[in-house]
Each structure stands twice: as structure tokens, then as C-alpha cells.
Design goal:
The chain is mainly β. The protein contains two helices and ten strands. It has a six-stranded antiparallel sheet with strand order 4-1-10-9-8-7, covered by helices on one side. A four-stranded antiparallel sheet has the order 3-2-5-6, with no helix packed on it. The longest helix has 18 residues.
Amino acid sequence: MESSPKTPDSKGAAAGSATKSLMDNLLGLLRIKIKKGVNLAVRDVRTSDPYCVVKMGKKQKLKTRVIKKDINPEWNEDLTLSVSDPNLPIKLTVYDHDTFSMDDKMGDAEFDIKPFVEALKMNLDGLPSGTVITRVLPCRTNCLAEESRVVWQDGKAVQDMILRLRNVECGEVELQLQWIELPGSKIV
């Protein structure tokens, strides 16, 4: 007797192969430390209750906690994304939390992780801490407020960046990228 496609055995095998292919494509994890917001837009009477949402692709969406009544919030929160395609840009949106109505948008920014991932492919072992690996300059195609550097720090590549928010009158968000390598990942 043949098994139908709906039997538990064939379902389990299909789910297992989908998970396996996702793991095969996974390059590693990107830890984004959302440090702080600077001079964010006022969306309530005199202040705002900001939080950040970070998206990569259509399936990954993470957010920080809300900081009440502060246009210069310090989140210092780590958000971790799974990276399988370094060509996908990461979008950061800042919102003002409202209790009785829809949250107000306070601007957005997009950034590219390709220069960071390219730096990871270099042989970095043995470099002195503080060595600048590469620089990314602000331009029309990125939201950088100033030059961003990928630096070898304590045996890890890190990239600090300040993003100027778009679609809003003012505001910047400071963050740091750090790579988490997984056993068997294929970054190199």
C-alpha cells in the first residue's frame, strides 16, 4: 500500500528538508545593538515615546522597548537577525507609541550590510585591536549621517553607524553591527 502525501511521515520529511535548506543557506547571525536616538521628532505634545522596528526581508521583524517621554532615548538593546542573503537591506523605522490611537511614524532609514559581510571574509586573525578594516562613506544611496568604519575590536569585526532618519523633520539613530558565526556557516 502506497502512502499518500498527507501521511505524517511524508509531512515530516518535507518539513525537515525545508529546515535543512534554510540552515544550508544561513551565513550567520547579525547582532544589531540599537544604542540610542538623537534629536528625534516630537509626536506628542512636547515629547515622544519612541521605539525602533528593524526588518530584514519579509519574514524578520524585531523591535526595541518603548522609552517614555524622551526624544533622546537610550535603548542599548541587542536585536539578532538570521542572515542568508547579505544583499537584502535592513530597514529601521522609529515609531512613537500611543496608547489610544495608532502609533505615529517618526522616520525610517535603510542600511546595507554588504561592506560588513565583505570585511568578514578577509583573514582578520592576528590584527591589532582597533584596526580599521574598511570605511563606508555617506552618500545618496545610504542613510549614513557620517563615515562608518568596520573595525577589528577584541577579536571581532564591529561596525558603528549613525543613521539619519528619512521622511521626518529631524532625528538620528546610533547602532552597532556585530557578527555571530555559527558552526558550519558559509560566510567565507
